[in-house]
Amino acid sequence: MVMYDTLVIGAGQAGLAAGYYLQKAGLRFVILEASDQPGGSWPHFYDSLSLNSPARYSSLPGLPFPGQPDRYPRRDEAVAYLHGYAAHFALPVVTGARVIKVERSGRFFRVLTGDKGCYRARTIVAATGFFGQPYIPNLPDQAHYRGQLFHAAKYRRPEPFRGQRVVVVGGGNAAVQIGVELAQVARVTLATRHPIRYLPQRVLGKDIHFWLNLTGLDRAQWLDEQSVPVFDTGAYRSAIASGQPDHRPMFERFTEDGLIWSDGCHEKVDTVLFATGYRPHLPYLAELGALDQAGRALQRRGASTSVPGLYYVGLPRQRNAASATLRGAGADARIVVNNLRRYVETQRQSQGRHAAGVVMKRQTRIWSGRGNELIALITLMMLALKQQIAAQGLASPRLLGEAVIRSVMISAGFLGVGHAATLYAPH
Predict the structure, then answer these.
(1) Over residues 237-250, mean pLDDT
(2) 181 near 152, Cβ under 8 Å?
(3) C-alpha to C-alpha distance for 332 and 330, rounded to whole angstroms
């Protein structure tokens, strides 16, 4: 079985960025991707999704996002960019390789996949990102609701909801974008536990990401999980203020056909759509002791704090607010691969010393095992000398010299007892 320096799990933006730096470092690696194409979660987002950062700030290392740099790329453009990125750098992506389990095998890792067999590596980069496990909270009487209930991860376009009464749960970018879009064909409410926080998309004529980059905030932990803002040109705030969609405090509970709002009123609702984010989805690491009780990675700056040789790229807030984005994956990947490379070099050196020790021990055993042969050889030499002396009546200088020369030849060549017996057999 081939021994890789690294196995990258996931060929989304995080895995491809890691692949770029692994390739530059000259390390032997493959990227294992569960789906039939690189791109991670991007192909599965809703049709109208657009990035909230301009193209000029939405690139992976080594390849700028194509097209007009100040536009906001759509989902399909991001998918095409990631496909092109993998092809441009000829990254070794193995598709259809869903990782079932990562386990220790001595000092190395063994990775089991569903259909593509097993792999061995010195290190692992878990780059499956943060969008593999949609989170739907369990609310009062939710199990009794008979309407349509699903997560935004399954939402694609507004047409199937035409004429419906829809409640979107959540106050982040995805919730607001989907709510405003659905409001064009349905009667929609945004239900949130906290006020919606808006962040202006442009400040003093520049996109907000220009200022985040200039001030260094994009490289800092300036946001927490409860304070994700909605990037807004003013269109979202205006739409919600006009009731398209409207905004209400979170409802109290479900009923069979609808909801009970916080003021006690009951309303029939056709669809409840949860835009409530995602949770860690790293089940393949469960047996390594790499996760906490909530399934979150035990890590610091992308390096596991409990499993040497295990690394992460693409976790939310792994290093800063941009870690789980196109614009942030590259910076995290560079740091992780630098640390990983040093770990691999140390392990190679250790393996070399271990191999040398094994060889020396083996040679020692060989020489020790032949010690008995050497004793027998010397004994035969002594017997041969005695026989020659007895046959000639005395040990002449010539005979003694010949015997010594033959003894040296035997010892140097380590011919063994059989050869020695033949050499000193009487004629």
Answers:
(1) 97
(2) no
(3) 5
CATH second-level architecture of 3-133+278-353?
3-Layer(bba) Sandwich (3.50)
Q: What is the pLDDT of residues 37-92, one digit of tens each?
A: 999 999 999 999 999 999 999 999 999 999 999 999 999 999 999 999 999 999 99
Residue 38 φ/ψ, nearest 5 degrees = -70, 160
Confidence of residue 362 (pLDDT cuts 50, 70, 90): low
Q: CB–CB of 145/28 below 8 Å?
A: no
**pLDDT (tens digit per residue) in 210-226:** 988 888 777 666 555 55
> Any alpha helices (H) in 185-234, and if so which ranges?
208-215
Taking every pair of Cα atoms in the chain, the longest distance, rounded to a whole number of angstroms, is: 129
Percent of residues, the chain, with pLDDT higher than 90? 68
Strand order in the sheet with 258-260: 253-254, 258-260, 266-268
Both tokens assigned to 412: 């140097």
Sign of CA dihedral 203, 208, 213, 216: positive
Given a contact cutoff of 8 angstroms between Cβ atoms, the answer to whether 290 and 324 are in contact is no
Yes or no: say if 73 and 81 are a contact pair by the CB < 8 Å rule: yes
3-state secondary structure 94-130: ECCCCEEEEEEECCEEEEEECCCCEEEEEEEEECCCC
Peptide bond into 283 cis (omega under 30): no
In the block, residue with structure tokens 């006009």: 242
Check: CATH 3.50.50.60 for 142-274? Answer: yes
Q: How many residues does the chain have?
A: 427
What type of residue sits at position 182?
A: L
